[in-house]
Amino acid sequence: MKQKQFYFIITFVALVADQVTKALATAWLEPHGSITVIDGFFRLSYALNRGVAFSLFADSQFQVQWVLAGISTIAAVAVMLYLGRTVASNKRLNTALALLLAGIIGNLLDRVRLGEVVDFLDFHWGERLTWPTFNIADAVICIGAALLALELMREEKAEHLQAQIQPQTSSPTPEETSIGSSE
Prior knowledge:
single chain; 183 residues
């Protein structure tokens, strides 16, 4: 169990980083709206998001706050249970789950507390190409999802190779059996 504690520490650190940066963004950016960090590429911009990651469903006519909070709660419990049951030696899978858990809980806390999520990281190329404003929770969800996808591909490849290595068991042909032979 001590080996698994490391992954829950990753979750805790990522969750604290998310919540602290959102509090700082609210305190420093809300009054100003936006602060340019790298001209033409990156700025810190205060934004509230009613939707999910990268503002999906933010313009919905429905009150999605509690629906999304419910889905997030179910997802957090599922990921936490899966993390608790995964073997400690699978570092990539455990790290992916720890990051997913941190991101899910980070945005869930905002959704329950504020009714929406605080976003503040704003990357763009000039003003033509703009990535949706996001936060640390969104970032660790994306990193966790990418690690999870890599792990699933690795497992699938390993299973495919294992299937090729195992001897093929087939039924013998009539020539291989003495049935019907003239001998």
